[in-house]
Amino acid sequence: MKIASRSRLDEAVTDVLVDRGDSEVANQVAANSGARFSKTGYSKLVLWAEGDDQLTATLARRSDIDPHLFRQLLAHATETVRETLIASAQPEVRDAVKRILTDISGHISNAVTSRHYARAQQLVSSFSQDTALTKSKLFEFANTNRLAETVAALSMLSAVPIDLVDRLMHDASYYGVMILCKAVGADWAVARAVLLSRQGPVGTPALELGEICEEYDKLSASSAQRLLRFWQARQAMLGPAKADVREKYYLTA
User: Fold this and answer.
1) How far is CA 245 from the centre of its chain?
2) Are 45 and 148 found together in one domain?
3) Which of 70, 85, 106 is the last residue of a domain?
4) Taking a C-beta distance cutoff of 8 angstroms, is the pair 217, 50 a contact?
5) Of 76, 106, 136, which marks where a domain is finished?
6) How many domains does the chain have?
């Protein structure tokens, strides 16, 4: 917390704070105007912000946040946070936020109605006892754009519920999928294929694979597993009361 409060923090420090810190540290460093974040650091913070109204609002007020991550924040934000942001924003910012929210609510993905995973899960279950084969099949599915089977294989390998894997595969940020791949011990060739098979929202920027490869190499499996457990715990905290928020995101992502 003391480090997170320093007047100036560079990306190398904030990356570690976000990786190692708890929710209080994340909120403290996000609120620090003298802190600078890498793409990885920002992606982590946006991932953890879901279910944390304070962190969501703090990140949304930062002027240096990437527009696509800002959109993702708003898509996940509760109505309370959205209303607070609109009420407290300057007129020009308020209009921009309203336009984004209108755009989010007006683009209902046709993919939602086709995200039926029963058949894909049945297929993956037939060989899921063989981890090496499942990883090989994950590579095959991703390379041939078989999204349902890719999601099912990732869910089986990571023990993450299939609806949450689906969420990450359709997020604007690639970071959640990168965490999943690293956590299950996938090499870069597999991770690259999975990342390229993602279907982010319309307007999501093209992946900079060289840069992402470097991030992937630096991310340790233990760190990815810790981050994944943290995110799963946050999702569990959302509970049934937040189901409508999650469903709203499904319809707008």
Assistant:
1) 15
2) no
3) 106
4) no
5) 106
6) 2
Q: What is the pTM of this model?
A: 0.66
* pLDDT tens-place string over residues 128-187: 999 999 999 999 999 999 999 999 999 999 988 888 888 888 877 788 899 999 999 999
C-beta of residue 35 within 8 angstroms of C-beta of residue 217: no
**In a shared domain, residues 140 and 164:** yes
Are 134 and 60 within one domain? no
Q: Does the structure show a pLDDT above 70 at 29?
A: yes
Helix axes 243-252, 162-169, angle to 10 degrees: 40
Question: For 185, what's the count of Cα atoms within 13 Å in the CB-facing half-sphere?
Answer: 6
Angle of helix 221-238 relative to helix 243-252, nearest 10 degrees, comes to 120
Cβ atoms of 191 and 178 closer than 8 Å: yes
Domain that holds residue 95: 3-106
Residues 120 and 196 in one domain: yes
Mark whether 66 and 176 lie in a shared domain: no
- C-beta neighbour count of 63 within 10 angstroms: 6
What DSSP string runs through 5-62?
A: GSS-B-HHHHHHHHHH--HHHHHHHHT-TTB---HHHHHHHHHHHTT-HHHHHHHHT-
Phi, psi dihedrals of residue 220, rounded to the nearest 5°:
-80, 155
